[in-house]
Amino acid sequence: MERLRPAWLLGLPLLAVAWLSAHALAYELVPTEEHGHGYLAQAPLFLTLCAATVSVALAARIAGRRGRALPGWLAGALPLLGFAVQEHLERALALGGMPWGTAIEPVFLLGLVLQLPFAVAALLVARALTALADAVTERPAARPRFAARLASPRPAWTEPARVPVLARGWAGRAPPVRT
After folding, report:
1. How many CB atoms lie within 10 A of CB 177?
2. What are phi and psi of 152, to 5 degrees?
3. Phi first, then psi: what are they for 83, rounded to 5°?
4. Which letter does DSSP use for residue 61 in this model?
5. How far apart (Å, rounded) are the C-alpha atoms in residues 141 and 176?
6. Residue ranges per domain, the chain?
7. Would you call 28 helix, strand, or coil by DSSP?
8. Quick one: which of 29, 56, 66, 163 has the fewest CB in 10 Å?
9. Alpha-carbon distance 82 to 72, whole Å?
10. C-alpha–C-alpha distance, residues 53 and 50, integer Å
11. Cα distance between residue 53 and residue 113, in whole Å
12. 64 to 29, 59, 67, 127, 135: CA distances (angstroms)
């Protein structure tokens, strides 16, 4: 079994947060009776775990551990499939049976539509965080820019004195001087 790589550790929690955010927004926009959303009281703990996982992934990226990014098809399919399974399980546990009509309810359809923009936003955040981590690792430790302004200019006595060309006798031929 292959270990999860930093790119996966960064992408999956962000996709999960986007998935649940779209789920919650769908239930805010479409008035409906609740079907088993008592577990959302644990959302702060879930968000904290996701933030910790993202932090570990960024630290691993900064430390030089690279990995393959999430495939695009998985990033698009995971929220859709997860939302559909979640909705059916919520209703099955709340009602005690398999609710086959879930897929045609307005809140389900709206939640399904909201999954893609939220997933795209999560992937954009993941890409930005990855670029930030890469910028931190690639930028050499440079001295501050203001240090150059604080340095004193070169003293005049260190410059060689300029001797006019005519004083050296190298003038060569010149036009006659008129008096």
Report:
1. 5
2. -75, 150
3. -65, -45
4. H
5. 62
6. 6-138
7. helix
8. 163
9. 16
10. 5
11. 27
12. 43, 9, 10, 16, 12
User: Which residue bears the tokens 């954009």?
Assistant: 124
**Which two structure tokens, joined as six digits, stand for 61?**
């990226």
Amino acid of residue 49: L
Across the chain, which has 179 residues, the per-10-residue mean pLDDT values are 60 86 85 67 83 86 73 79 84 78 85 90 86 77 54 63 61 66
The first and second tokens of residue 64, run together, are 């030089």
Task: DSSP for 98-121, please give it.
Answer: --GGGGGSHHHHHHHHHHHHHHHH
Q: Work out the burial of residue 146: count CB atoms within 10 Å of its CB; fewer than 13 is exposed, 13-18 middle, 19 or more buried.
A: exposed
Query: Residue 169: what pLDDT?
Result: 59
For residue 63 the two structure tokens come to 């430390």
In this structure, what token pair is assigned to residue 59? 């630290």
